[in-house]
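Re: export button greyed out
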Amino acid sequence: MRRIWHLALHDTRLFLVARENLFFMFLMPVMFMLFFSVVFRGNGPTDVSISLQVVDRDSGFLSRAFVKQLESGRFDVVAVAPAAADSTAYIRRLIIPVGFTDSVLAHRPVDVALTKKSDSNLEYDAAAEVRLRQVQARFLGALARWNQEAVSEISVADQEALLALIAEQPRLTVAAEFAGSGRPVPSGAGQSIPGMLAMFMVMTVAIGGSESLTREKLGGTLARLATTTYSTGEILGGKLLHLVLVGMVQAMVLMAAGQAIGRLGLFGIDFSWGPRYWVVLVGLVPYAFAVGGVTLLLGGLFRTTQQAESLGWMVGMVFAALGGCWWPLEIMPRGAQILGGFFPTFWAMKALHAVVTFGRGLDGILLPMAVLAGFGALFAWLGARTMKVTG
Amino acid sequence: MTPVLEVRDLRKVFGDLVAVDGISFAVGEGEIYGFLGPNGAGKTTTISMICGLLKPTEGEVLVQGLSVADDPRAVKRRMGVVPQEVALYEELSARANLEFWGGIFDLRGKEMKDRVAELLDQVGLDERASEPVKNFSGGMKRRLNLAMGLVHDPQLILLDEPTVGIDPQARHKILEIVKQIVAKGRTVLYTTHYLEEAEDLCDRLAIIDNGCILAEGSVDELKAQLGEGSLLTVQGGFGAADLTTAASGVSGLQPVEIADGRGMLLVGRDGPGVSHALEGLFQAGLTFDDISIKEPNLEDLFLRLTGRELRD
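Workaround output, generated via the alternate export path:
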């Protein structure tokens, strides 16, 4: 084992002194983490205001009160004058008809019309409809408490009383969260930071590792090692351990970066690995083993360093895309989800989400860990058979 | 006394190609044994089998009586290999490269430090020991490549064309280092296709081509196979048969290699001499465009043995 460690530490040292590897290992993944966390932050409408254009054709005090109610109902209201409505673009538009105030005060039914553009975000549209019904209920509640009978009797003080009721915090709220077998789709930083970690572990190890293995193969240092007292098994073991070490260094760096980004709240990003960060770390060990095995195989297959650089990228991209590093597995078509199961990234993301999103412990990620260890053993075996150590 | 290296009936076949065909030789302590032959002769394949990189199809390799096949780890500890390609870690310094290879052979602490310093001094890299190897010239890399094979002070050193692609000054430096190694009682197997190196360096030589040893012995013994005398080389518009017939009529003239338009003939030291030989050829009606006379060397022997020149 001492021989294997001697080789692994030597190779890791070589890896870390190469400037291009440092770029891949430290700078680029952190930039990607920030970028994707910001870009996908609005992926879910739960915590954000929804844009809504309002055309108030009534302009009565109750229609204005209703607009106030909309604003307190997490709508980002853009008021447009009726005359300018036809020439103004919109995504979602609410039209308050003429006679709204009179109809409400006279207890006659009145319809407000919500229209949506055909290319609007369906998720946001659905949320807008739900919020509109909440606003409707609260508005009616306020009217009931206000309890005025006729327009002619309403004074300015009465109007202000209604507005005060509308401005009140709701007396009853419903807090909903996923429970049991319910699974939220990870979004924003919760998806992007673990996704970038899993992706860059593959990219860094597969590109840098396969390139250095190919260079050693072509340059003769691998064959030279085989002329020493080291056995082929020890040489390959050293190379594999080195790849696992690089993967784990990458993992630790990105875990620290993710935590720092979340703690500092950079660009409003809210993220934490949770209290069980050590479970994340332990869960990533078999993933690093699987990635190392893949890289050993690639190093055995590649014939030139150019192949390693270009095909290494491609392998990293395919692994990331099909493994759910770029987008949540849950939004992928069923076929793609099944295909994803053949990639280590898929199982790594499963384990990461289990710990980070669903708060599971080590016992909750044993299956992904076992699958990843199996991947590692299979790829390492194939790599050992493919890698020609003796030149 | 047991030879340091003993090779018995070594044979390597790749598919239909017989790369090494039943080679046997032995090298004693403190000896430089040369393998002289053109590219593709089988030199590197032989070295690869000796150092355990390739498994022989047949035959056996013994180092200080130990079989490479049976006890590879013990044999490899006694052996230092300097491959033909410059196999270094370019991003690391010369010192870091040597320390890594020293660590492979279990050198530690002061022993490692002293040995690395000694080698850096020996190969003339002590002043640039901390620089990344990628900044080195070809000659400096070759010297470091050599030093890395010596770091564990092996008894047997296999040098596979260690001077390929470097300038004469750097080559001279490497040959000097090899001589220093042997002066300390180490044994060297040295492959080359440079005739001058083989003549200058080797105690004994094997001339190898197509996987076979064609001749073996000291430089003098090998030259003697051509006979003693002067080598007369003629070129002109004659046919091979004409020159052979003409030469057979001249006393003391022995054909070495004859082809259409070119001939190499040995003028025996005890015969009537070069003037007499030329006169006999002229009298036979031959005319020449070019005539040269020289002492025979290993190149001539290789030409005689293989029918082609060493550099072909």
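The CA atoms of residues 219 and 318 of chain A lie 29 Å apart. The button fix ships in the next patch.
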